[in-house]
Design goal:
Radius of gyration: 18 Å
Number of strands: 0
CATH architecture: Up-down Bundle
CATH class: Mainly Alpha
Helix content: over 70%
CATH topology: Four Helix Bundle (Hemerythrin (Met), subunit A)
Order of helices and strands: HHHH
Number of domains: 1
Distance between the termini: 62 Å
Low-confidence stretches: none
Shape: globular
Strand content: under 5%
Length: 116
């Protein structure tokens, strides 16, 4: 039964069109050798497609999570062990990237305070 107020068709269309746009951006980033950005946008693209699938299968709004494997689990999508591992790896790379960025942002003020 569809959740009240949920326009399933419109929401699925939104996620897919947004993922299609991200796909083009991912390719452009890859072709310009901006591999970190390409991977980041690829993560977003996969996340959006999983969210579209979630809406289709669960007839509900997708959860506010970015972990690709957990999102796939919530859709009840059957995946091979290899695909599961790929989703886990892509998510882990993004989390590590975010942690490094946050560490750098935290360390900059400390560095300038003591070494400038």
């Amino acid at each position: 039964m569809e959740k009240e107020g949920l326009n399933k068709k419109k929401l699925i269309k939104y996620w897919i069109e947004s993922a299609d746009d991200d796909f083009e951006t991912m390719l452009a980033m890859y072709q310009s050798q901006r591999y970190n950005w390409s991977l980041f946008i690829g993560h977003l693209m996969i996340e959006k497609l999983l969210k579209a699938y979630f809406v289709k299968m669960q007839e509900d709004y997708p959860p506010f999570i970015h972990n690709l494997y957990r999102l796939a689990e919530k859709t009840n999508l059957e995946l091979s062990d290899e695909k599961k591992e790929q989703l886990i790896t892509i998510t882990e790379v993004q989390y590590q990237r975010k942690i490094r960025r946050l560490q750098n942002e935290f360390q900059k003020p400390l560095y300038s305070r003591f070494y400038s």
